[in-house]
TrEMBL record:
Domain of life where this protein originates: Bacteria
Matches recorded under CDD domains: HP_PGM_like
Binding site for substrate: 8-15, 59, 84-87
Classification via NCBIfam families: MSMEG_4193 (TIGR03848)
GO cellular component: cytoplasm
Name of this chain's protein: MSMEG_4193 family putative phosphomutase
Pfam families reported in the protein's UniProt record: His_Phos_1
Gene3D superfamilies hit by this protein: Phosphoglycerate mutase-like
Active site, per annotation: 9 (tele-phosphohistidine intermediate), 84 (proton donor/acceptor)
Alphabetical list of PANTHER family matching this protein: BROAD-SPECIFICITY PHOSPHATASE YOR283W-RELATED, CONSERVED PROTEIN
Length: 234
């Protein structure tokens, strides 16, 4: 199955202002975030991406804009299911004041039971995001083969919940995962289990390119190759 590169959007104006942006419309990248987005093109290097999938929110779309310009043939898709968590009445509020809300303790310590007033639960967020990944994995493999690599640009909590699922972690542990703005997380999905290749990486990503198979290897399943590599003694 394919390898997924999860990219969190670059630093936004809400990040620098200490706001919980949620789905507030019009939240853009700040100047540093714009530089991060431009640098993503170099970081991805020669990684043979077959598709890019994005949250519908502007800060994700803007993060992928330089990549789309540099690779005009790269298909770019919008996926509602990897949208930011719907924080409801918390959206747009300062994080400093939200820390005094009793619900924040639940969000941090028992997120599987947390539901935002006028918004969605964290369980629902994880469910829709993981279903989106599974659907896109199947689509990408069908269209491009098991060695394909694709990118998905989303949001911190969404990416953390996808990583928790890949690691077999309960959602209540997902706050232990950290993914900074414009960081990349790579998950290789196989028929047996996923493998976390990178987490919150802000360096180069070209080394994640799949090896070019020899004629002898061309008929082998990537899943078998991945299991052999991970199970080695190195």
């Amino acid at each position: 199955m394919p390898t997924l590169i999860l990219v969190r959007h670059g630093r936004s104006t809400a990040n620098t202002e200490g706001l919980l942006a949620g789905r507030t419309p019009g939240v853009a990248l700040d100047e540093h975030g714009q530089r991060q987005a431009s640098g993503l093109v170099r970081r991805l290097g020669e990684l043979p991406l077959v598709a890019a999938v994005s949250s519908p929110l502007r800060r994700c779309q803007d993060t992928l804009a330089p990549l789309a310009e540099a690779r005009p043939g790269l298909p770019l898709h919008t996926e509602e299911r990897v949208n930011e968590c719907d924080y409801g009445q918390w959206s747009g509020r300062k994080l400093a004041e939200l820390n005094d809300e009793p619900l924040m303790t639940t969000v941090q310590r028992h997120p599987s039971s947390a539901a935002f007033p006028g918004g969605e639960s964290m369980r629902a967020m994880q469910h829709r995001a993981v279903e989106a990944v599974r659907d896109w994995n199947a689509r990408v493999e069908e269209e491009h083969g098991a060695n394909a690599v694709y990118l998905m640009c989303s949001h911190g909590d969404v990416i953390k919940s996808i990583v928790a699922d890949a690691l077999g972690m309960h959602l209540d542990l997902f706050q232990r995962i950290s993914v900074g703005p414009c960081s990349a997380t790579a998950i290789a999905y196989t028929p047996l289990r996923p493998f976390l290749l990178r987490l919150g990486d802000t360096g180069e990503l070209g080394s994640l390119a799949p090896p070019v198979p020899t004629d002898e290897e061309s008929g082998r399943e990537r899943g078998a190759q991945g299991n052999a590599t991970v199970g080695g003694s190195a």
